[in-house]
């Protein structure tokens, strides 16, 4: 794959999610379970000093019997709560038919690892956000995708007109069973060398355990990542989805202070 020359310009997106010399933290629960649950978790994100909240309304699950999310009702809850708190919404999209309703309620459309190769979805999303100064896309790396395949998937979006694209490394399948996946931080560096797209890291899905989320977040800063997509929940033990990897409120509250010295050493500021 041809290596593109770096412009020396710090990563940024036109919608302001990624800013020069900044390290963006997006936090929130894996799934919207109820108004009360999301409002409490989003309020913790706000009080921790972050301005983007994440949450799943359409949830791809390995088992068809697992909780699949609240759908459109979940989107309404997210946008209502986020609007009241002055937060922006990041949520996953799975079906091209949902693009309009997701864009109505969220600023950042997340395309998950299972859909990285869904080229019809990538092209439809690229066309939908074309020219938008408000919307953007987070494209997660497939858990068996090479860096080249990941970047080419992003180019399905950009070649369709969507230029507000952020790559997200979320761990790949390896033989190592002590973590859910293996966080591939070398891929963050390689992706930033091969493209001019910002790259963020999801330590929650990579580790699958909350005790590793903060150490991996520090490592992400050192690996030149542009931010984090991290799971948090006001009551992780009661979460309907992935509670074992969600940061509790007390850890989310100290995340900024924990990461700030590392970000400062890299010439960045945690936002």
Can you lay out the helices and strands and say which pair or pack?
Blueprint: E1 22-28, H1 35-47, E2 52-54, H2 72-85, E3 88-92, H3 99-105, E4 108-111, H4 119-128, E5 136-140, H5 147-158, E6 165-169, H6 185-194, E7 199-201, H7 203-207, H8 213-222, E8 227-231, H9 249-265, E9 269-270
Could you characterize what this model shows?
It is built from nine helices and nine strands. It is an alpha/beta fold. Strands 1, 2, 3, 4, 5, 6, 7, 8 and 9 form a nine-stranded parallel beta sheet that branches. Helix 1 runs parallel beside helix 2 and helix 8 (213-222) runs parallel beside helix 9. The longest helix has 17 residues, at 249-265. The two termini are 33 Å apart. Residues 5-10 have low confidence and may be disordered.
The biggest sheet amounts to: 9 strands, parallel
The residue fraction in helices comes out at: 25-40%
Helix/strand/pairing category: alpha/beta
Average pLDDT taken over every residue:
92
- The count of strands amounts to 9
Order of helices and strands: EHEHEHEHEHEHEHHEHE
Low-confidence region ranges: 5-10
The rounded Rg comes to 17 Å
- Tally of separate helices: 9
For the termini, the CA-CA separation is 33 Å
Which overall shape is indicated by the principal axes computed on the Cα atoms?
globular
Task: Tell me the β content.
Answer: 5-15%
